[in-house]
Amino acid sequence: MKKEKNKLRSHCPVNFGLEAFGDRWALLILRDIIFRGKRTYGEFLKSEEGFATNILASRLDHLIKVGILKREGHETDGRKDIFSITEKGLDLIPLIFEIVLWSAKYDTDSEAKRIVRLVELIRDDNRKISRKVIEQVRRGEAIVAEYL
């Protein structure tokens, strides 16, 4: 019998998450949408980490396939697509914030030093600030500017 292509390796909760969003590039796409308000393929390509075009296209397709992102046509430019986070993706914001806290603690050069207010709010009550940020991201707002 042929193995199903999209079958999970296991139903371990950690594995499920890793197979859905645990790739470095996938998390950077989510970061760019949440923190920087990026929405188009071209904007993602300009990320400082330097996405290769094939990797970016693959990760965007994967995040759409697993229901974390959605793709819609641009209102005025038919050649562009707009990517946004689904409800399933928005539920990852508290987890991404925990990664920010972990980085702030262990990376002495972490850029978390530039968003001290946000880091403090996450430390104080991740769920509360996550709810606020989820509403902002739903509206298509980038959050970094508010917390600098």
Please tally the β strands and state the result.
2
Please indicate the count of domains.
1
Strand order of the largest sheet: 1-2
- What kind of sheet is the major sheet? 2 strands, antiparallel
Alpha plus pi helix count: 8
Instruction: Supply the CATH architecture.
Output: Orthogonal Bundle
The residue-averaged pLDDT reads 88
Low-confidence stretches: none
Apparent shape: globular
Radius of gyration: 16 Å
Instruction: Indicate the CATH class.
Output: Mainly Alpha
Distance between the termini: 55 Å
Secondary-structure element order, as H and E? HHHHEEHHHH
In what range is the share of β-strand residues?
A: 5-15%
Keywords:
148 residues, two-stranded antiparallel sheet, Arc Repressor Mutant, subunit A, single chain
